[in-house]
Design goal:
Number of helices: 9
Distance between the termini: 30 Å
Number of strands: 17
Structural class: alpha/beta
Helix content: 25-40%
Shape: globular
Strand order of the largest sheet: 3-9-2-1-12-16-17-15
Strand content: 15-25%
């Protein structure tokens, strides 16, 4: 195979089309719709590596764990294991659905999911100031109990209290070599689910998991850089990035140079936890030698790669 390498990052929220109906059957519908579009990239000759988010799914697992602990005394689940769990479950859904999608196009390829560990710096400032909300909403009384246990919580936009955890920057994809080798052998690899399981090396040099989460887009950018990808493609809820989003002055962007992207970020056009990390991930990819990053929605992946839609981030 001589195809160009493309890393496709699927948002965890894009796997739930309607937040009011987050059932497993609905998630299957969303996954199958997305993999039909990814299959078109495979059919076009690209070597495809897929990454995915897991934000809503992590929340559901933690809520189940909290309920079980409260009512039955069953032990809680550490966050690194929750991320690994979602890598397996969401990876399985993508793996099966994409296998079906490519076979309908007459393509016989194997899709494989790689449980991925991502190394972070134990001295990352994020560990001193946790900011990433996870899990379900709780009352102030419940939040107070967590505070007494030494767990940080924040009031979230008037909707209740939520636990927060560190979100350190990804430094290195631990399973990079097998991901690369499998891709070069023609496999379609699903990796870095949920940003990867955050790990660090202890004083003995052994890997250990951490109570943290890594931003999926930033981890995907690191993977794309390590793979020397030709295209880093982020799939999200909008067809194109916009300035002054959701205002009368809204303006969509067909492209941004690296300088323009930095300017727009500095002007506050992109919201934290929403579009900002996606643009940051694209900037990180381009400034470290990547030739092209694209942001679009799941329905337009191939069209965006062909230059018909989406927002392109280029060196300029």
């Amino acid at each position: 195979m001589d195809g160009k390498v493309i890393v496709v990052a699927i948002g965890g929220n894009s796997l739930i089309q309607n937040p009011k109906e987050p059932t497993v059957n609905r998630q299957w519908d969303a996954v199958r719709s997305t993999t039909d579009e990814i299959a078109k990239l495979v059919a076009a000759g690209y070597r495809v590596v897929v990454t995915h988010g897991n934000g809503p799914q992590v929340g559901y697992i933690l809520q189940r764990s909290e309920i079980a602990t409260k009512h039955s005394g069953i032990h809680s689940v550490p966050l690194d294991l929750v991320v690994a769990d979602t890598q397996g479950s969401i990876g399985y859904m993508i793996q099966q659905a994409l296998d079906n999608s490519i076979r309908r196009l007459g393509i016989a390829r194997t899709v494989i999911t790689m449980v991925t560990q991502v190394e972070v710096d134990p001295n990352d400032p994020a560990f001193q100031k946790p900011t990433k909300p996870i899990g379900g909403f709780m009352s102030e009384a419940e939040a107070t109990k967590l505070k007494e246990q030494g767990l940080p919580v924040v009031e979230d936009a008037g909707r209740g209290w939520r636990r927060v955890v560190p979100s350190p920057k990804p430094r290195k994809i631990h399973e990079f070599i097998p991901i690369h080798d499998l891709m070069m052998q023609g496999y379609i690899v699903v990796a870095c689910g949920g940003g990867g399981v955050p790990v660090m090396r202890n004083e003995l040099g052994s890997l250990r998991g951490l109570e943290a989460v890594i931003d999926k887009d930033l981890a995907s950018s690191v993977l794309a850089q390590m793979l020397r990808a030709d295209i880093f493609l982020i799939s999200t809820g909008v067809e194109q990035v916009a300035l002054n989003f959701n205002t009368p002055e809204q303006r969509t962007l067909a492209s941004m140079t690296l300088r323009e992207a930095r300017q727009y970020m500095g002007e506050g056009h992109f919201k934290p936890g929403s579009m900002l990390p996606k643009v940051e991930a694209c900037v990180d990819f381009i400034q470290n030698g990547g030739p092209l990053a694209i942001i679009t929605d799941p329905q337009n992946l191939l069209r965006a790669v062909q230059g018909e839609t989406g927002t392109r981030v280029i060196p300029g």
